[in-house]
Amino acid sequence: xxxxxELIKAAQAAGRKALDERSGKALLAAHGxxxxxxxxxxxxxxLKAAAELTxxxxxxxxxxxxxxxxxxxxxxxxLKNAAEVAAAIERMAQQPAIQAARVEGYLVEEMxxxxxELVIGGLIDPQFGPLVMVGLGGIFVEVLADVAFRICPIERxxxxxxxxELKGAAVLKGARGRPAAxxxxxxxxxxxxxxxxxxxxxxxxIKEADINPLIVSADSAVAVDARFIIG
Length: 231
Ligand code: ADP
Ligand code: MG
Hints:
By secondary structure, the protein is an alpha+beta fold. It contains eight helices and ten strands. The radius of gyration is 18 Å and the shape is globular.
């Protein structure tokens, strides 16, 4: 497994301002955060690397020019076999936003267990240094800005308080047909990102972190999208 330092150095050497999604997930995995099994294939006609995955899978376009893959038509979930994967890649390759971009391949990954979508992120405050953030996904973050921040490094009690601060915290217990989300699993990821041995404190090259979403079921939390801006 490539170390986080090597992943960051390789991106810097390539003149990149961000880790690609697979490298971002490898960095999280090295810190003990669960990520889906992920491979990258060159195109619809060469799916060999995906043979080791268990269906259903997700396909995502890999491009340094595309920040929001769904907006570009570059995400397909719930694909049940290789034929569906090939068809999804062919469809993506026809999307105008994808045709206009430098495409480095297509990421194929296993589906995370169903759960609630949260966001865990980080940024550097000029005065206080790294900050870690958590919010409930979707409209909770985007419309209601229901998020909690702390200065790193955080300890367990801080992670607990961050979750309690969220106005939507009750949703985590399961409501309106949503499954309950493991509070323990969320706290664990918060510590792995914002704790003393966490991603933000250990790697000062990381200027911004965005796990969006972290999919949290009753007993697991899986980071299915990860973006790290490096300086
Ligand atoms: P982007 O944010 O660039 O549009 P994401 O990688 O976040 O793309 O994927 C978009 C959405 O697809 C996610 O918010 C999530 O709902 C779903 N998704 C992505 N990857 C997985 C996965 N491995 N398992 C289950 N759902 C996924
Ligand atoms: Mg995302």
